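Lecture 7 notes: from sequence to structure.
We start with the chain below.
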Amino acid sequence: MSTLCTTLVGNKCPLLTITNFSSPPLTLERRRAICVSARVHPGETCASWTMQGFLEFLCGNSARARILRDNFIFKVVPMLNPDGVMNGQYRCSLSGQDLNRQWQSPDRYFHPTIYSIKQLIKSLKVNRDISIFCDIHGHSRKCNMFMYGCTSKSPSLRLKERVFPYLLHNDSLMFSYDDCNFKVQKCKESAARVVAWREFQIPNSYTLEMSLGGGDFGEDPAVRPPIHFNIEDYMEMGRLFCEAILDMYDPGRVRLEAALHELELLHPEIKKVAEPDDGEGGDLDGDSRRKKRGDSSSRLVGSKKSSSTGKLASKAASGSKTAKPKKMEGNRRQTSARR
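Predicted C-alpha cells for the same chain:
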C-alpha cells in the first residue's frame, strides 16, 4: 500500500498495488493492468462494501485469486474522496464540486485525487496495456446492479465492450444487463469512464452501479421477488467482478465466445465486422491474434479448463443459457417503453 496523494485538507488517499510480486522482473513488466476505484461520491456507501468483496477475493488464497495475481497488476483506489467521507458529504468534495465531473481537466490543488489517478493511468499506459478500468458507485434511483459503458465508433469493438457486463449478468440475478447503458451523454463527458475510454483508449471502461435500494429482477417475480440489497449482496458483487475478469481472459475463451454469441442475438443491429486493430485498445483481438501465433504471453498463467467452464458448456448445450437472451430482449422493450 502506498499514498496516491494528499487531499485538499491533508488526508491521505491510499493506493493499493496487488499482484504476484515474486514473479520474474520481465514478467512483471509485461503484465497487464486493471484499475479500480470507488467512493468518489461519499454518500454511496455500498461502493465500499463492493470494494471490500473485491479486495477479499483478490487477496485471498483461492486458486482463482492466484491466477488473477499471476496475470494482472491491480491498481486500486478504494476511496477517491476521503475528505467528503470524513466530513459527511453526500456527493461533493470539500471544494464543493462533484469530483466525477472533473476528469477532463482536474486541478492539482482543488481535485488532487482525480489529478493523481489520471497521472497514474497515464504512467501505466507508457509501459503496459490497461485491460479494464472501473469506477464503483451507488445509484439512488434505479433498481438492480448494472454498468454504464461507452460505445466505440468501430463496429468490431461495439459488442466486445459489452462482454464484461454481460458476463456479470450471466453470473448473478442481482446484475441486470437490461439496465446497462453504453451511450455517452454530453453531461457525462468529464466522468471517469468516459475520459479513461477517450483519453487513454481503454475500451473496457465502466461505471459499476449498485442500487441503494434493491433489485426488481425483471418483469417476472416468479424468478425472484423484489428485495432490498444487503451488505452481503454488495460484497458478492465485488467477488463476482473478479470471477468475470477470469472468464473474460480465460485462454479457453468458452464463456467469452458464448457471451459474444448471445450478444449478437440481443443486438442484431450491431454488425460484428472483422476489422484491423484501429488502436482503440481491443485486448480481446490482441489475445486472439497472439493465441493464433502460439504466444504464451496471452494465456492466463496457471489457468486450466475448470469445472465452471464445463458447467457453462453443458448449460449452453441444454439451452438454459441461450434461452435467456429471448427473455431479456422482451424485458428490454418493456423497459424502454417505461422510460
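Points to note: The beta strands are 2-6, 12-18, 32-38, 72-77, 130-139, 145-148, 205-211, 214-215, 227-228. Residues 331 and 337 are 10 Å apart (CA to CA).
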